[in-house]
Design brief:
The complex is a heterodimer of chains A (70) and B (540). By secondary structure, chain A is mainly alpha-helical. Chain A is 77% helix and 6% strand. In chain A, strand 1 and strand 2 form a beta hairpin. The longest helix of chain A has 31 residues. Chain B has a single domain, classed as Sodium/glucose cotransporter. Chain B is globular. The chains are: A mainly alpha (70), B mainly alpha (540).
């Protein structure tokens, strides 16, 4: 087995699942922890987190495509 | 002139045709929405047929028909994957979910998007390196080909049929609303166009229909989001502030309403969304249309970026719809309900922002979306029938006889889907999409993943795990809220999870592990020994 390929897969998959579970947990707990409104009270912290997680998914996919060819 | 270039010109021609129609509709005395919608509708139908006719000339063998001869470039395949994945449900349904519940729409969007990195990390490259036409090729590499092909064919065909019925019934209702046809006429139009497009041009035509659709859908999303933001002075706080003021749930639309109430169902849904995509036959099939595993990875990266962009655009669109449509009485009937239901909210928003022409264009893009997705599904079903079930019976599976068989399989799948969509007219079919994702995540994904990465898996484990994943997904969905309560009318479900993936997916992994671990047969030992060679080839 190729150690490098295996490590890349495991690391990226773990990062993906941690980011997703983090977003999921924050969303599930938001009403209990009282979400923190931003931009004058019109956007919640969870929404900003969601946008950041989406950007992270695109970025990590691009990184994997690049790193798997290197 | 190369076929690819001809098809590229066909795609450009469709876009130009749409612009010409737009201009024409604008000049027809006052340009009401129905005449503009008719023009756009004709343009989409003509464009799809033109692409199919051009593509038909190059579909000379089975590989051309099923996987475009592996000649699709990564960028083209990225757009086609995005076009295949972003169904009318993703566009109209997610906008409606944001319109009704706000933040909960984001949970779906992130679940759908999270599936794509997983596909690229675990499945895309190895799938292309080990297979030719279907996922069953990969499983046949070291397992008993006849038995695993039959199993995967049953799972995939069931999944494709459920997915197709959900899409076709939704298509019938949406087209009825958009263009004023009756429901049966709408379903037959979609069915006939789908069959003609796929039978004539196979994967080449389907790919270009999906590319054109993805471009149109992204353009629509960008323009709608831009116009929405312009309406609020490009100030996000004004947009979201107006949405909060208009929505009865007020600040409740900024946080999840459903997750804290039903966290286990939320987790189960999350599992179905992120692992389901890696088991959907029409998505997996697209990885065979490129040259090699590296191109499969590149195309997935493109698809992820495009899908991520589109889902991001849905938020200004969804919250813009709350701000601009929710309080506008002209989009509500006398009872106060949104005309056409919540699924048409993007169409109403396009009318607010772009008038009759804008609305007609969005209707046409939604129609193109439906055609692109059902074409992909039909081809996946045809591939399963002709390659996994009937290949051994053909004397010339890769030549003209194989091509004829694949075309006949397309006709069968398309006809069955159209008839079932007509039969399910007044039924609640929302659960079918959930069931398709549950099947993909609970039956296809575990056996594919273990076959690629677990050396000790044997044919016995694949068969037992796949059967348990398949049966448990169907039984638990029947006993769950979607069918037991909403369809059968019982007071409470016997299984509260909807979808049941939290139970069924681990169950499949467990059965695969238990049966393979106890398999002491000589055949099982040979299959384990073959893993090293398979793994090396999967990385090639």
């Amino acid at each position: 087995m190729s150690d490098r390929s295996w490590r890349l897969r495991i690391t990226c998959t773990a990062a993906l699942l941690i980011a997703y579970l983090g977003f999921f947990g924050a969303s599930a707990l938001a009403p209990l922890t009282m979400s923190s409104p931003l931009l004058g009270g019109s956007i919640s912290l969870e929404m900003m987190l969601g946008v950041a997680v989406m950007a992270f998914f695109v970025a990590i996919t691009g990184y994997y495509a690049y790193a798997s060819e290197a | 002139m190369g076929v690819s270039r001809k098809l590229g010109y066909s795609g450009i021609a469709v876009a130009t045709l749409l612009q010409v129609c737009s201009a024409a509709a604008g000049t027809i005395g006052g340009a009401n929405s129905s005449s503009a919608a008719e023009w756009f509708f004709i343009a989409i139908v003509a464009g799809a047929i033109a692409i199919s006719v051009v593509a038909a000339r190059s579909a000379k063998a089975t590989s051309d028909f099923l996987v475009a001869g592996g000649r699709i470039t990564p960028l083209q395949n990225g757009f086609a994957l995005a076009g295949d994945f972003m169904s009318a449900g993703a566009f109209l349904g997610l906008s409606a979910l944001i319109f009704n519940s706000g933040f909960d729409g984001m949970i779906y969007a992130i679940g759908y998007l999270a599936s794509w990195p997983l596909v690229i990390f675990l499945v895309a490259g190895p799938l292309k390196n080990l297979g030719r036409y279907t996922m069953a090729d990969v499983l046949s590499y070291r397992f008993d080909g006849r038995r695993v092909r039959l199993l995967v064919a049953i799972i995939s065909l069931t999944l494709v049929v459920f997915y197709l019925i959900a899409q076709m019934v939704g298509a019938g209702q949406v087209i009825q609303l958009m263009f004023g046809f009756s429901y049966p006429t709408s379903v037959v139009i979609v069915g006939v166009l789908m069959i003609v497009c796929v039978m004539a041009g196979g994967m080449i035509a389907t790919t270009w229909v999906q590319i054109v659709k993805a471009v149109l859908m992204l353009l629509t999303g960008i323009v709608l989001a831009f116009l929405t933001l312009r309406n609020f002075g490009y100030d996000l706080s004004r947009l979201f502030g107006a949405a909060l003021a208009a929505h009865p749930k007020a600040s409740g639309i900024l946080v999840s309403q459903t997750l804290p109430k039903a966290p286990w169902s939320g987790i189960s849904l999350g599992l179905a969304l992120i692992f389901g995509t890696a088991g959907l036959p029409h998505i997996l099939m697209r990885f065979f249309t490129v040259k090699n595993g590296r191109d499969a990875i590149r195309s997935t990266a493109w698809a992820t970026a495009l899908i991520g962009l589109f889902f991001l655009l849905l938020f200004p669109i969804g919250y813009g719809a709350i701000a601009l449509v929710m309080k506008d009485p002209s989009y509500h009937d006398q009872s106060g309900a949104l005309i056409g239901g919540a699924n048409t909210v993007s169409i109403h928003l396009s009318h607010v922002l772009g008038g009759d022409i804008g609305m007609a264009f969005v209707c046409a893009v939604s129609f193109a979306t439906i055609i692109a997705v059902v074409a992909g599904l039909t081809l996946a079903g045809a591939s399963t029938i002709s390659h996994d079930l009937l290949r051994s019976t053909s004397s010339d599976p890769d030549g003209k006889k194989g091509l004829f068989g694949a075309r006949m399989a397309t006709l069968v799948i398309g006809t069955v889907a159209t008839l079932l969509a007509l039969a399910f007219r007044d039924q609640n079919v929302a659960y079918m999409l959930g069931l398709a994702f549950a099947l993909a995540a609970s039956a296809n994904f575990p056996i594919l993943l273990l076959s690629l990465y677990w050396p000790k898996l044997t044919t016995a484990g694949v068969i037992a795990g796949g059967c348990v994943g398949f049966a448990s997904s169907i039984v638990f969905t029947i006993l769950g809220p979607a069918i037991w309560v909403k369809t059968f009318g019982f007071a409470a479900p016997l299984v509260s999870l909807d979808p049941p993936t939290l139970i069924t997916m681990p169950l499949t992994f467990l059965v695969c592990w238990a049966v393979s671990s106890r398999d002491r047969s000589k055949k099982g030992a040979e299959e384990r020994a073959a893993f090293g060679e398979q793994y090396r080839r999967s990385l090639a």
